[in-house]
Structure formats: structure tokens, C-alpha cells
Design goal:
Elements (H helix, E strand, L loop, with lengths): L3 H15 L4 H8 L3 H4 L6 H16 L10 H18 L4 H5 L6 H17 L3 H22 L15 H8 L6 H19 L6
InterPro entries: Homeodomain-like_sf, HTH-type_TetR-like_transc_reg, HTH_TetR, Repressor_TetR_C, Tet_transcr_reg_TetR, Tet_transcr_reg_TetR-rel_C_sf
Protein name: HTH tetR-type domain-containing protein
GO biological process, one term: negative regulation of DNA-templated transcription
């Protein structure tokens, strides 16, 4: 039976495999005619919304412990967000530019907004902080599926400083993980310095 949940999951698979989303390709993946999809969705935008719902469910935001200190709760949210998008990197370009009109997204952002406001951040700071963090997470999700070595064929004689730091850079999948961990810690530390008592 075709339903909205199955459509969203199949759309994620299509984007992962093909790097783009078209109605005919999604219909083929589901084994139905394109017209059958329109009994459940109004079009491509709604399918993208279903993809977002699938990914949002994977972040565990609804089950997250938001009572932790703001930086710990935000770190847990960021890591779950990264894991969901790293599993479906093909969805990043689609979802990054699609407006967030869904109530389930509003509910998640409500939790984040409450967390940051309760911590003492100003109302005008909250969405810029969230946007900055999400931009970092989405870029990191793409980095997670990039080649382990991104800077190669460096000549030590012409780039001695770069060569020295590359000597200390992992050449396996841990490179992206270390980069995310360091970057996330730097962002959260920087956020903390924006609080009134810092």
C-alpha cells in the first residue's frame, strides 16, 4: 500500500542514489505510475516535506532531554542532526533551501528557542545562532561522505606549513569526525561568550 511515510522514505533513497528528485524516478522506485503519487501528495514540494519529516524523526529531537545545560543539549541535538543528514547526504541540497513550513519542524525549533532563551540568549540572537549551527552541520554531513583525504599532492618544499599540519591530519574517516567535534566545540564556546554574564 502506498502511503505518505513510504513516499518520504523512498524519496530519500532516490535522492541518495541519483542525487536529484523527480516524480517519474520516485514513481519507478515505488513501482507505481506517477499519477498514483498525486493521490497522496500535491507535488514535489510536499514530497520534500515528507523527506524532511523522515529525517527529523531520525534525529530523535522529540525524545531528547532538553533539561540538560544549554550547551550539552545543543551538542546532543547537533550530533543527532548530523547523523541523520550524513546518512542521506543527497538530501542536503534539497532540504537546505526548502522553507520550513511544517508544524513538526516548528515544534523542534520551539524546543531549541526555549533552550537558548532560558539560557539567557537575547531573542534577536537565537535564530542567527541556530542558522549558523545548522549551516555547520549540513556542511559537516557532506564532509562525512567526502574522500578521507581532501588536500593531496602537496609539495613540502613549496608548502612547508601546510605539509606540517597535514602530517597531523587523519587520512581515514576520522578526519571528518574530528573536524566536526572540534568545530562544534568551538561554536558552542563562542556562543557562550555571547551570554550577558560572559
Amino acid at each position: 500500500m502506498l502511503d505518505r511515510r513510504r513516499i518520504g522514505a523512498a524519496a530519500l533513497r532516490v535522492v541518495d542514489e541519483q542525487g536529484t528528485l523527480t516524480i517519474p524516478a520516485l514513481a519507478r522506485a515505488l513501482g507505481v505510475a506517477p499519477s498514483a503519487l498525486y493521490h497522496h501528495v500535491s507535488g514535489r514540494d510536499e514530497i520534500i516535506s515528507l523527506m524532511r519529516e523522515e529525517l527529523t524523526g531520525a534525529t530523535g529531537g522529540a525524545d531528547q532531554d532538553w533539561s540538560k545545560p544549554w550547551d550539552q543539549a545543543l551538542e546532543a541535538w547537533a550530533r543527532s542532526y548530523l547523523a541523520a543528514f550524513a546518512a542521506h547526504p543527497g538530501a542536503v541540497p534539497l532540504l537546505a533551501v526548502a522553507p520550513l513550513a511544517e508544524p513538526f519542524m516548528h515544534a523542534m525549533y520551539e524546543k531549541v528557542a526555549e533552550l537558548l532563551l532560558s539560557a539567557g540568549f537575547a531573542e534577536a540572537q537565537v535564530m542567527p545562532l541556530v542558522n549558523a549551527l545548522e549551516s555547520f552541520i549540513l556542511g559537516s554531513a557532506l564532509d562525512m561522505v567526502s574522500p578521507p583525504v581532501m588536500v593531496s599532492d602537496v609539495t613540502r618544499e613549496t608548502a612547508p606549513h601546510l605539509s606540517a599540519v597535514l602530517d597531523q591530519t587523519p587520512t581515514d574517516h576520522t578526519r571528518a569526525e574530528h573536524s566536526f567535534t572540534l568545530g562544534l566545540r568551538a561554536m558552542l564556546t563562542g556562543f557562550g561568550h555571547l551570554l550577558p554574564d560572559n
